[in-house]
Structures are given as structure tokens and as C-alpha cells.
Amino acid sequence: RDTDALQGFKQELASLQAKEWLSSVLVEVFLHIRRLRKLKRVNRCLTGVRTHTITAKSTSLAQEFVTDRIRLAFLREISRMNLRGTEVEMNQDRGRSGSTLFRIQLVGASGAKIGSVLSEGESRAIGLAAFLSELTTCQAASALVFDDPVTSLDHLWRGEFARRLVEEAANRQVIVFTHDLVFMHDLLDCSQSKQVAYKSKMIFKGTEGVGIVSDDLPWKKLKLGPRKEALDSDAAKAKRLYDAKDFPTYEKDVTAWFALLRNSCERVIEQVFLNNTITRYQDYIHVKSLRKASVLELDHCDRLHDIFHECSSIIEAHDLSTGRNGSAPSPQRLFDILKEFGDLVDEVKNLQKGV
């Protein structure tokens, strides 16, 4: 009995000691209970927003509504880009963080890396095709901006991509920055043939700074009409220098003027005499255009040669004899030879209209 009573006292003492300790940490206990309750609520929320659940749903929806559509669009773009010999396909890849991903792979070699098998040009063309494919999933017809998109593309893909961009430009605004005159020619040629409206601007660096915008195209891309207008304007500027007796600047500008007229004579051969049968920046010959070249006579050739020869005698393409010590032609000669040039072009064009 005494042993049982002692044991009871010990248990009561332990209970009192525990209550005493609990009273000293009671505030911390309540705070911890509150933290556990918050943690339980947070865990319940996390269960509802776990990304794998969203990813799974997104993957399911993409498979049902998007995958086949974008895969077919990709195949069409591959065909349009003349990539039929490159066996690639687009398949849905594993999603991550709630996003559905697509992967371009080689047919029959899905594990191979595209970049290690295809050339830089092929990879770039496929990337452009994939981008255009994604547009089929976007309802908005927002503007597209391309910065030198044909780098590393050969002439076949470049021409096909220019045609594809012009097709897209019929439905939305397409802005293209490029240094490639061949690609620019393809864009303008396709736009004209498909009657898609376009505007051309030149952005360059000048004495005023960088990023200067001009409505004029580079001289190499100008046709004869705009060239003649530019030459006429420059001749008027040269006359003002002559009248102001600024002969050193006048002589320098006149030499440059005749150089531009000289290479315009070469452009006459291409665009007028041969009627664009063979055009630089194009990889095909317009055989039907050749018949209008039949109006050409020896007199036309001689007159053009005389203009060309006079230009060659003035420009600095040759090291002229110092004994000649010739001076630059007068401003009136600039206007006269430009008129001869224009009359010759108009005469041949009028003869061609009757063919």
C-alpha cells in the first residue's frame, strides 16, 4: 500500500511539473498550432495548383484541339519553303510548368538533334516554317516583324520565303528589315505580281546621325525612272555650286554624277534594250520578253555608246593623262546629256509598245 501511494504521488508530481513547464511555453505552443493550421491550408491549396495537373490538362487539350492542326500547318509550310527533301515532322513534346511544348524531329530518327544533322540554312528555313505554323493557332492578325530572316538561306529558299511573306502580307502587316538586295528584289517582285500593296524605306547612317529614314531605295535597286529624277535633281544642285563659283566641290560632284549616269547606261541595256529578259537579282530568264528587243537598231546602240563613252572620259575609273588637264563639263552639258539619255530610252520604249 505505501508503495502504491508513493507511485501515485510521483505521477501527480510529474503531472504538476509538466503543467508548470507547459504554462511557461504556452504562448509558443499556441503559435505553433496556428502555424500548423496555416500549413495544412497551404498544402490543400498547393494540391489544387500543382503544375503537373495543369500541364496534364494543357497537354490533353492541345492533343485534342491543336496538335493535328499545327502539325498539318507545319507540313504545308515545309512544302511551301521547298523543303520537301528534308524529312522532318513536328510532334507534341512533354509539357513543363503548365506549358505545352512541340518538338521538330527527323522522320525515323526522333532522337537525333536537328542542329547536328541539318545545315545552318536548312535549320533556319525549318525554324521559319515552324514560326509560320504557329500563326495558325493565333486568332489575332497582329503585325509580323522579321530582321534579316534569310541569312544562310540559298536562293531557292529565299525566293520561296519571299513569296510566302507576300502571301501573309495580304492578310496582315509584315515588316521586313534586310540588307539582302536579292531578297528585297524577290519581295518587291512577288508583291507586284500578286498585287499586294507595299512600301519601301531605306534606313541608313549619314552626317545627321544613324537611323535616318528615306523613301528612296538604294541606287542599285532604283529603276530608270527614279534614277533619272535623281540625276536631274543632282544636276540642279551641281548648277547651284557652279553659279556660286564653288568649283572644287562642283567638279567632285559632277564626276560622281557622270559615274551614276554611266552605270544607268548599263541598266538601260538590262531594263529597256533587252526588255528585262535577263534581270540581275533574279535566277530565271523571261523568254517572252525577248521579242520586244527586236526593235533595237544600230543607231540606238551607237547613241548609248556615245553617252557611255563620254561618262567614262570624265569619271575617275581611269587614271587620265595629266597633260589633258581638262575641266568638268558645264552645268548645261549635264542637262543636255541627260535629255539625250531620256530621249533614247523613250524612243526605244515607244517602239516596243508596238510589238
Would you mind describing this structure in some detail?
This protein is mostly helical. 59% of the residues lie in helices and 8% in strands. The chain has helices at 2-49, 51-65, 67-80, 114-117, 120-134, 155-169, 181-193, 224-243, 247-273, 298-314, 331-353, and strands spanning 88-92, 102-106, 144-147, 174-177, 202-206, 209-214. The chain has a two-stranded antiparallel ribbon with strand order 1-2. Strands 3-4 form a two-stranded parallel sheet. A hairpin with a 2-residue loop joins strand 5 (202-206) and strand 6 (209-214). Helix 8 (224-243) packs antiparallel against helix 11 (331-353), helix 9 packs parallel to helix 11 and helix 10 runs antiparallel to helix 11 (331-353). The chain is elongated, with a radius of gyration of 38 Å. It starts with a helix and ends with a helix. 15% of the residues are buried.
What structural class should be given to the helix and strand makeup?
mainly alpha
Helix proportion: 55-70%
Number of strands: 6
Give me the Rg, rounded.
38 Å
Straight-line distance between termini = 138 Å
Summarize the structure.
By secondary structure, this protein is mostly helical. Helices cover 59% and strands 8% of the residues.
